[in-house]
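Reopening this ticket.

The earlier resolution said the output was attached, but the attachment link was broken on my side. Pasting everything inline this time so it's all in one place.
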Amino acid sequence: MKAFLLLIFVLFFSQANAQNELTINYSEIKEEIEDQNSPNYYPKLLKKFNDFDKELKFEEYALLYYGFTFQENYLKNQSEEIELSKLEQDEKFEELISACEKYLLKNPVSLKANDLMAYSLYKLNKPESEWKKFQDRYRALRKVIVYSGNGLTCETAFKVISVSDEYDILYSYFDVENIKKQSLVGLCDKFEISQTKYYQSDIIYFDISPKLIRSENLKK
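Inline output:
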């Protein structure tokens, strides 16, 4: 596994320690995904992603997730995720599927939309082949995030592109039940939490810099 990771993160990611933490270089990602002659040109990767290409590599999921910050729709439609959550709470799964389909056209790397799409199809007793592809995609994107740091400091924070993704990692991945306090520290969100068996610290940091920087630039 370690040899595989060392191979696939050449050029875009560097291995930070033996626990497979990764350093994300946004400028290099931007250069690669905007090069029309590169196999990692964003539209090419996105087509593979939307085709549920089973050969899509972990590094390509990372380029898709972090590369979305350089796309036109980044930050434009995130408020629509509130409606997805409401439909889930009301158990309106047919409507939720339609809403997720529309939202994924705007934000294909949304953790929430991919997760709820899988959940809705499952709840409606659709074949495993229909819901599992969204579940696999959701898990691959989530794995990219938890490999991007260790969360113990702002310098080693988990790298996310939306606030919604922070809560997904907290609740769904680390099984956090109690958030005591949340504060902004520089370009990071700092959470004080109750430790879980999956995260052995009472503090966790998320680097939300793409959102904060882009939002500030939009104000100018």
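Reporter confirms the inline version is readable. Residues 128-146 form the longest helix (19 residues). The first strand starts at residue 13 and ends at 15.
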